[in-house]
Automatic annotation (TrEMBL):
<dbReference type="InterPro" id="IPR014729">
    <property type="entry name" value="Rossmann-like_a/b/a_fold"/>
</dbReference>
<comment type="similarity">
    <text>Belongs to the class-I aminoacyl-tRNA synthetase family.</text>
</comment>
<dbReference type="GO" id="GO:0004823">
    <property type="term" value="F:leucine-tRNA ligase activity"/>
</dbReference>
<feature type="domain" description="Aminoacyl-tRNA synthetase class Ia">
    <location>
        <begin position="283"/>
        <end position="929"/>
    </location>
</feature>
<keyword id="KW-0547">Nucleotide-binding</keyword>
<feature type="domain" description="Methionyl/Valyl/Leucyl/Isoleucyl-tRNA synthetase anticodon-binding">
    <location>
        <begin position="967"/>
        <end position="1090"/>
    </location>
</feature>
<dbReference type="InterPro" id="IPR004493">
    <property type="entry name" value="Leu-tRNA-synth_Ia_arc/euk"/>
</dbReference>
<feature type="compositionally biased region" description="Basic and acidic residues">
    <location>
        <begin position="216"/>
        <end position="230"/>
    </location>
</feature>
<dbReference type="InterPro" id="IPR009008">
    <property type="entry name" value="Val/Leu/Ile-tRNA-synth_edit"/>
</dbReference>
<dbReference type="InterPro" id="IPR001412">
    <property type="entry name" value="aa-tRNA-synth_I_CS"/>
</dbReference>
<dbReference type="GO" id="GO:0006429">
    <property type="term" value="P:leucyl-tRNA aminoacylation"/>
</dbReference>
<dbReference type="GO" id="GO:0002161">
    <property type="term" value="F:aminoacyl-tRNA deacylase activity"/>
</dbReference>
<dbReference type="InterPro" id="IPR002300">
    <property type="entry name" value="aa-tRNA-synth_Ia"/>
</dbReference>
<dbReference type="InterPro" id="IPR013155">
    <property type="entry name" value="M/V/L/I-tRNA-synth_anticd-bd"/>
</dbReference>
<feature type="domain" description="Aminoacyl-tRNA synthetase class Ia">
    <location>
        <begin position="121"/>
        <end position="221"/>
    </location>
</feature>
<keyword id="KW-0067">ATP-binding</keyword>
<dbReference type="Pfam" id="PF00133">
    <property type="entry name" value="tRNA-synt_1"/>
</dbReference>
Length: 1259
């Protein structure tokens, strides 16, 4: 059996850590335990922020060696004396889940050569700086077109991965393509650190270190261990420690359950174990990951202007000043408000948990219900006691000493207007229900928003998220008891309805006061008083499909309008013995209760659920599909068309009466407004979120005039998405998006300006400060001094203190007046204004589709607010894509298919990765990165470089002189591929651009080589092909193209600065293109015909034919006759004439296509209708073939009655090519109306224009 490495050895091998003897490990661990946790953090991190960042990469070092980074990022393991060194020992057990790294791959020369080419090319780009472009200052160049593209800055809590690379590529390809159209390009990239995730991870790591240290430092009874300094005792201590570790679960593991600890996560991210402790300082993340992101993006070959890059948060004072100006402007314009709002809350962080702060549940918002109190009838319970109620009775008896309390089952509903039709309620027999002390009057309520100074003053008050009370206080204060699920109680507690008790464990969170729990079985049969119900008493009955994670676990039953309720009630009525034996259901709880008519719906009547269940023959409550269909129909028609039959609102439409009835119930203290997350939401800190009523600064998205402005812009021609589906999503989101909480108390970022110096400074939420930062790119390079941290002045020498709101107002076109009293020279102010006005608006933003629901829509709102009278400055295009998969599987570390950009470049090279990402997909469906494609591209690009070398050096035999027919056909194909690739780039169809600009270019070259045969290819054609190939592929694979262009073809300028290939007018000839395609298609058709003929000669599978004996070879088919038709048969000519009247157009893929109109044109023609059945069928089949297949291949010319060239002459001129391709010694060509003496088959009758037929025979 092969020996296995320990987990610790595997980790050391993976991260190249030195091996440490076991005795030395223990000595270090004990030494570490004697130090305070803060020393681990402070000693591993540099004392000041930020560290100096490297200047522009002057060259690309070996992929196996890191680029020069700040000192804190050094990969060198610490010395034994370093206080950070013992930390890996403390967490040695946590690394046991890390799998051993795979064996090093065998040497791959082709890949390594491409990597060396990429390194050299990137070094040249770094020297010549082609991507650093400023706005023109002179009038002569001011009119030069520009293109400004961007990508949502990536979050710096880890290294960049393939998903980042995929979306980045979609902007990168367009930037390079637009540069080749002669435009100035601005393609910058910032790095995002704002928000909760980094700080939450750092604090989590800090807690883990503290807990592990405390665990190691104390014995089982909490006594302090004595530190052993002598190495002689190490062995025994180590053995005992390992045995203890097996017996006891650590506090870290106990508190995180099966989830990974932050330490394990950092190991999985490839952080050397000796460096992990430094990440307990949140600022260390900001120093560590941004330089790595810059390194990886540079190695990927992206043409970024790094002068304009920045790190967010107040770490960068210039960016911080810009965000403060943005929010001051929004405040002045009334877009910011303050008030109590229902908000998704992270309980651990005690702040709103927005999409960016979530580990799961992105896009989920609060769902509002009406919770109705179903009051327990105590006297009726005592009059008719039921044994299964005893656990509940005992719990209630225990609180009598604290006064009478109303006890109710609380049921959540979306339809309070239907309460008149209640016949019972349902509970889950196996469910766990708590008895929670509750207030009659809540401690919180949703209130009216305050604006301006009023909001700022209100924000000064301290926020109390929980109403904390002792049990004694809660029993004395609360006048009600709610029976419901634990999850709903937790939500109600944060909405002011339930008091909470503090946990004894400082790391645990408070919980509602629960008197005890009972099973749903103990609630079945409870007599209840239901508000607005027709029946004075209803009972709780069992329902098996209730979810305890949705609503309160108690469901009201209105069988007249709810098909599920009706069928559940019918099931109980139809099986009384079963439900009595199983759940103790008595007949009197069910029998007297019939559906009550409460709402009349046109066409469905006053009992719509009953009617439809009978009509559709629903068998039971298990017939879920039918019930769902009925539910949707009843609810939709009921809400919009239904009219109430009972109550004060009788005669009113349900849509008008719903809110009125709800408010009446709430006013009578019989109901309450209740919110919970639409779906589970988990914060990055690990806790499941709730909906809380909390004071928030929020952006008033959805305000009528603001929303209408954004809607009008989305529907205008100025805004593009290049996808009808994406445009529809934007319209949908703007339709429902409302108030967005933008303030936080925990995390990193910029403070709201008016709170910064207050007693309660408030941070701006990460999705709110990232809406117009694209404008900051325009001036960042003038302010920051080529330093992403903004610690040095830029070329204009402006200090951050000089950047007043008035200065930003001028720079960003809020006013044309220079700021009064500014100490910034006027020429510098005008320079910044010029940069902004030249580059803005943003021409393209590429993003994942998930950001449609927040960031991208927020950006449109913010641009409309900051530049309300300048829609010409709003974003021009948003292009969205799906997520990335790897080999058709979701990319995941658990599946072993997670690819970072760093690792992907090492494995595939940058260009091969870029090609595979271009090939992955262009729609909002999930894209598929295929390793096979990336690996195949390595070979393809390597051979391309070899071909270029051979062609230029003379190793490849080429001819010169006159151009042949094959040359002209090939040149036309080069022009065709180039034009089609251009159209694909313009439409963001990168897979199609790759197909035309790489794959088909290679195919056409190989086909041209075959067409030339022994004559060899022409040198001019090969050089033209090489140049064009480099230019059409340069946006996707720039390194290899730059290498061939500059180093082999010796072009004087960089290919990244070259123009898109141009050809003389009318160089693209559709006739020549069709000739070329006809030759290729004919060879394929002829080969298939020959294969069949050979099979027949060999004794094929024809019925009754005997197979040829094994020792008798089939005669070789060495001769052939090709038949060419000059015109179509009369019937087909008739059909083509009709088809020429049909409308045709180019589809999304650029191919010609037709609608269904052509079928009606042919069907309704008198001449076609006069044909017999078989001829008519033939005509329709021919029409379908021409409009489906031929039209796509040949365009409009597919509908011509004759070919626009001499087909017979074309085939004859390429006789040698056809003979060589088919392995023939002789081939002759005849018109289809002439027979060949060797041919007695019907083959010649199969020929039609553009589709010659062939007959093979033995010579």
């Amino acid at each position: 059996m092969a020996s296995c490495k320990s987990a610790g050895e595997a980790v050391r091998d993976r991260f190249h850590l030195p091996s440490i003897p076991s005795g030395e490990r223990l000595r270090r661990a004990l030494l570490a335990l004697s130090q305070p946790v803060s020393q681990f953090v402070s000693s591993a991190a540099s004392p000041s922020l930020p560290s100096p960042t490297p200047k522009r990469f002057s060259s690309l070092a070996s992929l196996r060696a890191p680029l020069p980074l700040p000192a804190v990022l050094s990969r060198s393991p610490p010395s034994a004396s370093s206080s950070a060194a013992p930390l890996p020992v403390l967490f040695r057990g946590l690394s046991s889940k890390m799998a051993a790294a795979p064996a090093a791959p065998q040497s791959r020369g082709r890949r390594d050569k491409l990597l060396s080419i990429e390194e050299a090319i990137q070094a040249r780009w770094a020297r010549e700086n082609p991507y650093e472009v400023d706005a023109p200052l002179d009038a002569a160049n001011a009119e030069k077109k520009k293109y400004f593209c961007s990508f949502p800055y990536p979050y710096m809590n880890g290294k960049l991965h393939l998903g980042h690379g995929f979306t980045l590529c979609r902007a990168e390809f367009q930037a390079r393509f637009q540069r080749m159209q002669g435009k100035n390009i601005l393609w910058p990239l910032g790095l995002h650190c704002t928000g909760m995730p980094i700080l939450a991870c750092a604090d989590k790591l800090k807690r883990e270190i503290a807990m592990r240290k405390a665990e190691q430092d104390c014995g089982e009874n909490g006594e302090k261990r004595e530190h052993v300094e002598s190495a002689e005792n190490n062995s025994a201590e180590q053995q005992n420690g390992e045995e203890d570790a097996k017996k006891k679960k650590s506090k870290v593991a106990a508190k995180t359950g099966n989830a990974k600890t932050q330490w394990e996560i950092m190991l999985g991210m490839g952080i050397p174990e000796a460096e992990i402790a430094a990440f307990a300082d949140a600022q260390h993340w900001l120093r560590y990951f941004p330089p790595l992101a810059k390194r990886d993006v540079t190695r990927m070959g992206f043409g970024i202007d790094w002068r304009r890059s920045f790190v967010t948060t107040d770490v960068n004072p210039f960016y911080d000043a810009f965000i403060r100006w943005q929010f001051n402007t929004l405040m002045k314009r009334g877009k910011l408000k303050f008030g109590m709002r229902a908000t998704i809350l992270s309980r651990r962080e005690k702040q709103a948990c927005a999409d960016h702060d979530r580990a799961s549940g992105e896009g989920v918002g609060p769902q509002e219900y009406t919770v109705v109190k179903l009051f327990l009838q105590g006297e009726k319970m005592r009059e008719a006691p039921v044994p299964q109620h005893q656990p509940l009775v005992q719990l209630l008896e225990a609180v009598k000493a604290y006064g009478a309390k109303k006890v109710s089952l609380v049921a959540a509903t979306l339809r309070p207007e239907t309460m008149y039709g209640q016949t019972n309620c349902y509970v889950l027999p196996e469910g766990k229900y708590g008895l929670y002390l509750a207030f009659t009057n809540p401690k919180k309520s949703l209130d009216k928003a305050e604006e301006g100074d009023g909001g700022a003053q209100a924000a000064e008050s301290e926020e109390e998220f929980e109403t904390l009370m002792t049990r004694e206080e809660a029993l004395s204060t609360c006048t009600e008891v709610f029976i419901c699920s634990e999850r709903s109680a937790l939500n109600m507690a944060y909405q002011g309805w339930l008091p909470m008790q503090a946990a004894e464990d400082p790391d645990a969170l408070p919980v509602p006061h629960c008197l005890g729990t009972v099973d749903g079985m103990n609630l079945i049969g409870l007599p209840l008083t239901a508000p607005n119900a027709t029946y004075p008493t209803i009972y709780a009955l069992p329902m098996l499909t209730i979810s305890m994670n949705k609503g309160t676990g108690v469901v009201m039953s209105v069988p007249s309008d709810a098909p599920d309720d009706y069928m559940a009630l019918q099931d109980i009525k139809n099986k009384p013995d079963f439900f009595k034996d199983r759940y103790g259901v008595l007949p009197e709880w069910v029998g007297p209760f019939e559906p009550v008519a409460i709402i009349d719906i046109p066409d469905l009547g006053a009992l719509p659920a009953v009617t439809l269940c009978k009509e559709k023959k629903v068998a039971s409550q298990k017939d879920t599909q039918k019930l769902q269909e009925i539910k949707e129909e009843v609810y939709k028609k009921g809400f919009y068309d239904g009219v109430l039959l009972v109550g004060p609102c009788a005669g009113q439409k349900v849509a008008d009466a719903k809110t009125v009835i709800r408010d009446q119930l709430i006013e009578r203290k019989e109901a309450l407004r209740y919110f919970e997350p639409e779906k589970p939401v988990v914060a990055r800190s690990g806790d499941e979120c709730v909906v809380a009523f909390m004071h928030q600064w929020y952006l008033d998205y959805g305000e009528e005039k603001w929303r209408e402005t954004v809607e009008a812009y989305i529907n205008s021609e100025q805004f593009q998405t290049f996808s009808p589906q994406v445009l529809h999503q934007f319209k949908h989101v703007v339709g429902w998006l409302r108030e967005w909480a933008c303030s936080r108390s925990y995390g990193l970022g910029t403070y709201l300006p008016w709170t910064k110096d207050s007693s309660r400074p408030v941070l701006i939420e990460s999705l709110s400060d990232s809406t117009i930062y694209m404008a900051y790119y325009a001036i960042a390079h003038l302010l920051q001094g080529n330093d992403m941290y903004g610690q040095a002045k830029g070329p204009l020498g402006i200090a951050v203190e000089q950047l007043t709101d008035e200065v930003f107002d001028y720079v960003f076109a809020q006013t044309d007046d220079l700021p009064k009293g500014s100490t910034i020279p006027a020429e510098h102010l005008k320079r910044m204004r010029n940069e902004f006005e030249y580059w803005y608006p943003l021409d393209l933003r590429v993003s994942g589709k998930d950001l449609i629901f927040n960031h991208l829509t927020f950006s449109l709102y913010s641009h409309a607010a900051i530049w309300p009278h300048r829609p010409d400055l709003w974003p021009r295009a948003f292009v969205c894509n799906g997520h990335i998969m790897v080999d058709a599987q979701k990319m995941s570390k658990s599946l072993g298919n997670f690819i970072s950009i760093e690792d992907g470049i090492k494995e595939f090279t940058a260009d091969a990765m870029r090609v595979a990402l271009a090939d992955a997909g262009d729609t909002t469906d999930d894209a598929n990165f295929q390793r096979e494609t990336a690996n195949g591209t390595i070979m393809r690009l390597y051979l391309l470089e070899q071909f270029a070398n051979e062609a230029v050096s003379g190793a490849l035999p080429l001819r010169t002189g006159r151009y042949s027919d094959a040359d002209r056909l090939f040149l036309n194909e080069i022009v065709t591929c180039t034009q089609e690739a251009k159209e694909a780039y313009e439409g963001f169809q990168y897979r199609e651009a790759l197909k035309k600009g790489l794959y088909e270019m290679h195919t056409r070259r190989d086909q041209y080589r075959l067409l030339c045969g022994e004559d060899h290819m022409h040198k001019d054609m090969v050089v033209t092909w090489l140049k064009t190939q480099c230019q059409t592929l340069a946006p996707i694979a720039p390194h290899i193209c730059e290498h061939i262009w500059s180093e082999i073809l010796k072009e004087p300028s960089l290919i990244v600065s070259s123009a898109w290939p141009t050809f003389p007018e009318h160089a693209q000839d559709p006739v020549l293109h069709r000739q070329f395609l006809l030759l290729l298609a004919s060879v394929e058709d002829f080969r298939r015909t020959k294969d069949k003929a050979v099979q027949m000669l060999s004794g094929g599978k024809k019925k009754g034919q005997q197979p040829r004996p094994a020792d008798q070879a089939a005669p070789a088919l060495t001769h052939a006759v090709v038949y060419v038709a000059k015109e179509y048969p009369p019937l087909q000519q008739q059909v083509l004439t009709l088809l020429q009247k049909a409308p045709i157009h180019k589809g999304e893929d650029g191919a010609w296509c037709a609608g269904k109109e052509y079928m009606d044109i042919v069907k309704n023609d008198e001449g076609i209708n006069a044909l017999d059945k078989n001829a008519k069928k033939e005509a329709m089949a021919f029409a379908s073939f021409q409009m489906r297949d031929e039209l796509k291949a040949y365009g409009r010319s597919a509908l011509d009655l004759r070919l626009p060239f001499d087909e017979l002459n074309l085939l004859q001129s390429h006789q040698r090519y056809l003979q060589a391709s088919l392995g023939l010694t002789e081939i002759v060509f005849l018109p289809s109306d002439e027979a060949h003496p060797k041919d007695d088959s019907p083959n010649r009758k199969l020929a039609k224009p553009g589709k010659p037929s062939i007959f093979f025979y033995v010579g």
